[in-house]
Amino acid sequence: MNRRHLVALAALAACTTALTAHAQSNEIRIAHVYSKTGALEAYGKQTQTGLMMGLDYATGGTMMVNGKKLVVIEKDDQGKPDLGKSLLAAAYSDDKAALAVGPTASGVALAMLPVAEEYKKILIVEPAVADSITGDKWNKYIFRTGRNSSQDAISNAVAVDKAGVTVATLAQDNAFGRDGVKAFAGALKKAKLAHEEYLPPATTDFTAGAQRLIDKLKDVPGRKIIWIVWAGAGNPFKIVDLDLKRYGIEIATGGNILPAMAAYKSLPGMEGAAYYYFGIPKNPVNEAMVAAHYKQFKAPPDFFTAGGFSAAMAVVTALKKTNGDTNTNKLIGTMEGMSFDTPKGKMTFRKEDHQAMQSMYHFKIKVDPAFAWGVPELVHEIKPEEMDIPIKNKR
What we know:
Layout: H1 3-25, E1 27-34, H2 41-58, E2 64-65, E3 68-76, H3 81-93, E4 99-101, H4 106-119, E5 122-125, E6 142-144, H5 149-160, E7 165-172, H6 175-187, E8 192-199, H7 207-217, E9 223-229, E10 249-253, E11 271-274, H8 284-297, H9 303-321, H10 328-335, E12 339-342, E13 345-349, E14 356-357, E15 360-366, E16 375-382
Parallel strand pairs: 1-3, 1-4, 4-5, 5-6, 7-8, 7-9, 9-10
Antiparallel strand pairs: 2-3, 11-15, 12-13, 13-14, 15-16
């Protein structure tokens, strides 16, 4: 190959590199690392739907901010911490993602936090809930639109915390379950906690655990409640079949995805607190999401759809404020204390730990033949200022 050919090739390569760089500079790449498959696949898919719908809504259907195209790069962590960690590193380094959203599972999130710090890039955690994510394992690159265990638990405590009530808990033996119970127990001021029961996350037979719970509660006077915190497979509500009524024992739990709430149909009058239910919040963002979801899927949006949508609203609100500048420090400065609209109403990233302060919903289950699930009717919107959500990092 002669010198002229080499020069021409070099010029072509330089031109291609420049074009690629130009294309990238006109893009804002967002990595979405989530459980596309695995135990929490149902949650992950909803988050992804919500994220894409939210980006579309927040940009008025253009997928552009300040002349830059938003490009979403999807990664499937399969619910595996090591995989999530390597996928996030690849997204920041190889894919040149400006920021990332995800993951679904708390264990995966905890593995990903140091990666965001290493690459000095933002990770918006949605929907993983473990308190430690914005607590002792937190770093300044982490923001969370999803609710944390404390928000879940404290709002549920608000719903059942009355004098003369005795509570026992049933939870998965993992970060999600243990953080949930710890926060719930810490929030009880009037009710008494009699027992904590932890079972393996994949449990399908709840008989032995239920028997231990019954033994702890059956002879206690006053109102008796088993509070359940569970995610993924397995149906802990089967314990109702063990004739809890005979002992005057009630069930309480938080909200859940619609298929899981089919089990609530056998529990009319059950109280708890939910992160989201499509029929509860009354605001333009929720109306838009519900309408878009019915149009596309002929069904209402679910629990985690709202979460993905909220993450999208946070991303676009921040990018609009920086005029499309993805400089990490600039984004952090913009997002700390930032309020943004979501299907749940206004959320605000708390400066101290970047946890989104948000409403929760105290509900009572009503059975309506028109729905395949127990319908959570709003008793009271628990506003952020009504919940004392502890700051658990060492900032």
